[in-house]
Amino acid sequence: MKALVYHGSKDVRVDTVKDPVLQEPDDIILRVTATAICGSDLHLYRGKVPTLLSGDILGHEFMGEVVAAGTGVTELKVGDRVVVPFVIACGTCYFCNTRLFAACESTNPDQGTILNPKGIRPGAALFGFSHSYGGIPGGQAELVRVPKANVGPIKIPDALSDEKVLFLSDILPTGYQAVLNAEVREGSTLAIFGAGPVGLMAAACARMLGASEIIMVDHHPYRLEFAQRTFGVIPINFDDVDAAEIIIEATHRRGVDAVIDAVGFEAKGSALETALTKLKIETSSGKALRQCIAAVRRGGVVSVPGVYTGFLHGFLFGDIFEKGITIKGGQTHVQRFLPELLTHIGEGRLSSEVIVSHRLPLSEAAQGYKVFDQKLEDCRKVVLTP
Fold it and tell me: What is d(CA 129, CA 61) in angstroms, rounded to the nearest whole number?
């Protein structure tokens, strides 16, 4: 089969590789009909994740048709059309039983990314996301093996097109969990740092839940213009102003009820942070997170769907304490949210496909990564079709 394979920093190629086979009774093989490039795929593409190895197949946002099923598969059958969560969960461990599927104790045999684990088990395996997360081949391919197929893959009605439901695999539930973690409700004020796909999905979900005012912070004018036009946000370009100062001034010197950091560890930081990262003294830029802490009101919530790893320079914990801020973050418990989000899509309350800007065949995936990485052609989101 054809699949997108990692060969090194900014070197991905569509290669011919072996077809996947059933390995466990609860596996399925999926013929991929649509897959997407995620913002977190760019961390891998840029060589920022050392446990991604040459030859690994990328991709964790995908859907398709079941073409083979193991003897232990009870929830699906050959011919079913499904979206697959990027999180692989067993469904029976302590954390799965508490619906914390991204914390599943049994699917990831590798070390995880916690620097001071003290023996704690790693969280769930993820598709196509390095050997820290299980080394499971991803879905930017013609075929993919899906482990634990009784837990997670959700059947899709024929009336809904691939693009309408594809983002149930990651960015839509990730944006939704971020908004729920931010405790957004009718009348809430919210700032979202990062107008990429997750930030846009968070804006869509916040609107659905009744947020009265959404401020969007980014430095790409075309992304801010799209967010303003599509979701009615108030745009702030952080290249022009101090975003947190503007937010404080606009909210009676209090700050917004909640802030979402949809940027993560590759935020555009200071010269010092750039130097520290090159020296490997720190592994993440804290610029976006510091702005979030500054912009939220006392007693407010900072919700962090953006990926962070390792050390952060200038993590203002004293400000968190002084302001009584709650911080919530982590990988998305996708399986928990799929049924309700599918209902919202089916009933027209969410239209996640509006963010798609580029549609390419899988054979042009390397070009899709380049365009998305360099923000060329006003790129917001790339969908690939095998």
Answer: 11
pLDDT tens by residue, 89-139? 999 999 999 999 999 999 998 878 888 888 888 999 999 999 999 999 999
3-state secondary structure of 88: strand
CA distances from 378 to 220, 330, 373, 384 (A): 9, 29, 11, 17
Cβ-proximal residues to 115 (8 Å cutoff; 6+ apart), any chain = 310, 311
- 333-347 pLDDT, tens digit each: 999 999 999 999 999
SS3 assignment, position 57: strand
**How is the chain split into domains, by residue range?**
2-170+332-385, 171-329
C-alpha distances in Å from residue 52, one per residue of 13, 47, 137: 15, 8, 11
Which CATH topology does 171-329 take? Rossmann fold (3.40.50)
The CATH number assigned to the domain with range 2-170+332-385 reads: 3.90.180.10
> How many Å apart are CA 170 and CA 198, to the nearest integer?
9
| CA dist list (Å): 375 to 50, 193, 363 | 24, 17, 20
- Strand (E) or helix (H) holding 223: helix 221-231
Supply the pTM of this predicted model: 0.94
